[in-house]
Amino acid sequence: MSETNRNGEVWVFAEQEDGKLSDVPLELLGKARELAGTLEVPVSAVLLGTDVGGLSDTLVAHGADKVYLAEHDALAHYQTAGYARALCELIGQHGPQVVLYGATPLGRDLAPMVASRLKCGLTADCTDLQIGDHTDAVSKTEHKNLLFQIRPAFGGNIIATIVNPERWPQMATVREGVMPLPERDDARDGEVVRCEVDLDGATLPLTIEQTHREKKSVNLKAARVIVAGGAGVGSRENFDMLWQLAGLLGGAVAGSRAAVDLGYIDADHQVGQTGTTVRPALYVAVGISGAVQHRAGMEEAARILAVNTDPDADIFKVAHYGIVGDYEDVIPKMIKAIHGGA
Could you tell me which residues are beta bridge partners of residue 70? Predict the structure, then answer.
């Protein structure tokens, strides 16, 4: 690792498919600006693909100072070999000190390949990132301005902070939705750096003849109101009253992992550490115990209302309002109240 890497930029891999950016790189640009502000370095996005240059304006508007744009026919569709080779080449040329990826299926595939080729560390599924100093317990060497990579560990029972003082760039994948999406600012100025990558002769193991993507049945991240049920709801049929309440509130229905595993609601609706992270204006938790894995996905909601028969349920630790009672009694009363008592 060269000394210039220690003052390198903070990079965000700008994941796109079919010429469309997902929300994840835009969320990461907001956090990257915070990290780069502490480090006093620029923020850059790396955009790979074919005919994707038009996305650069969106990346700049959401916080990128530079966009490294590499277009090549071999990058038209995502394949690990081509994208990893291109990204490693760009990292070698420009020497960033931090590279962030979304913890999406694509990011979880690409980041380990890049880390392996560069022989650097990678922390997966981070829920927070900070800059701080670290002193090695053995050598007593003090390392300044390291990336603190924070994530749940041991089944979510503890929060681990991971540092990588030696093998750079420091790399992490970050869960979708855990970083707030910064507002678009079209007044921002940024530089688009067109990069050549040597992919001629690259062996891509697949020939993609056709692609098909099934849309999710629900967009929980965009919902302002969410009514979520847990194992305590008891059955898929009992979820009907949650659907009714959500409909009256103009919201979406979600479930804990336990509810999904029991077949009460489909996996697209799962909120939590292994599901979607949400930040609605109102989150109604019904029959949810409040295990740390679930709280990790919803505790940033503006207002949380919990309904549970157990007064000691962990969900009450994060709830702004709590009702101790049977949901089969409480939810119908809420529905009746919304109807104006009719």
Answer: 48
